[in-house]
Amino acid sequence: MIDIAQNAPHTLILTEDEAGIYLQASLERVWAVRGQTPIVRQHAGRDSTHFYGTLNLNTGQETVMRSKIMTSEATALHLDQVLAAYPDQSILLIWDRAPWHFGDAVNATLAAHPRLEVMYYPAASPDLNPQEHVWKDARHHVTHNHDMNSLNALADAVEAYLVSHRFPCSLLHTLGYHAILDLTSAHTYCRQL
């Protein structure tokens, strides 16, 4: 990332991941009035849907897409959505090595849009991906202890939460990226004088 900061300081850095949600509620501790134990309905089925989520590491803004399945084709559709959300910027997208991040559809999208470059997290390192914290936050606020009867209603609530909130990320600050940007900006300014 340091090379990108020095060579292309206006590159937008995004991170991407996928998550599944189930109509079956997950449980979490909750405050309740003494003697009034909260009731969480259990659904017998395992109905689920998936979300693609891309986090802008500078703004905390989330780009979200719902998908019944995760395939190279669905991933390519999400990449098109990300490109449309940031039409005039070079993008570095950091993601994992999930099987659906490869394949003909993804390769064709990347080839057609050279302003989008991908970088991979090390294998088995979800703790490095800030998007994981976005999923955790959404689960805490929406899917834990929910009482919705419809998967569509639950998915709508998750999507609404993701697009209406900002998810600050300290990864760029931790890696010193902003300091490098400041130096490259100052260097560019000095060269212009």
User: Which ranges are low-confidence, i.e. pLDDT below 50, for 5 or more consecutive residues?
Assistant: 179-193
> CATH superfamily name?
Ribonuclease H-like superfamily/Ribonuclease H
Number of structural domains: 1
Q: Tell me about the largest β-sheet.
A: 5 strands, mixed
Q: State the secondary-structure class.
A: alpha/beta
Strand content: 15-25%
Supply the key terms:
193 residues, alpha/beta, 7 helices, 5 strands, disordered C terminus
Can I get a quick summary?
The protein has helices at 2-7, 72-85, 104-112, 131-143, 151-164, 171-174, 177-192; strands at 12-22, 48-56, 62-67, 91-95, 116-120.
Tell me what the structure shows.
The protein has about 190 residues and is of the alpha/beta class. It has a single domain, classed as 2-Layer Sandwich (Nucleotidyltransferase, domain 5), CATH 3.30.420.10. The chain is about 40% helix and about 20% strand. Helix 2 runs parallel beside helix 3 and helix 4 packs across helix 5. The radius of gyration is 19 Å and the shape is globular. The protein starts with a helix and ends with a helix.
